[in-house]
Amino acid sequence: MTQTLEKQRSYKALFILNTRGYDEPVENLQAEIVEAIKKLDATVTAQVGHGRIDFARITEKDHLGDTYFEVSFSGAASLPAAVQTAFRLERRVKRVMVNLA
Questions:
Q1: Residues 12, 70: Cα–Cα separation, whole Å
Q2: Rounded to 5 degrees, what are φ and ψ at 91?
Q3: Adjacent-strand bridge partners of 42
Q4: Domains in the chain, ordered, with CATH?
């Protein structure tokens, strides 16, 4: 009988949300993101909404910035890749960056 004990690691994920054409409150989208992370067997420990922040480099003159949202969570070592994959095709999430906390 073999047992695998995976060490729980702490992570922080920064989401840049694409809120163009999104008519609902941003808090609804943030709640959906947290629920999706919980479904990946992660324990969410904190969430911080940084609000709208202007981009350092502007690619479109009528689109100067977007909403930033940070989630702290813990889980297995495979969790960062799972989070990247889960939000890869989500059009309301522009970018996801996951780092060890």
A1: 7
A2: -70, -20
A3: none
A4: 9-100 (3.30.70.60)
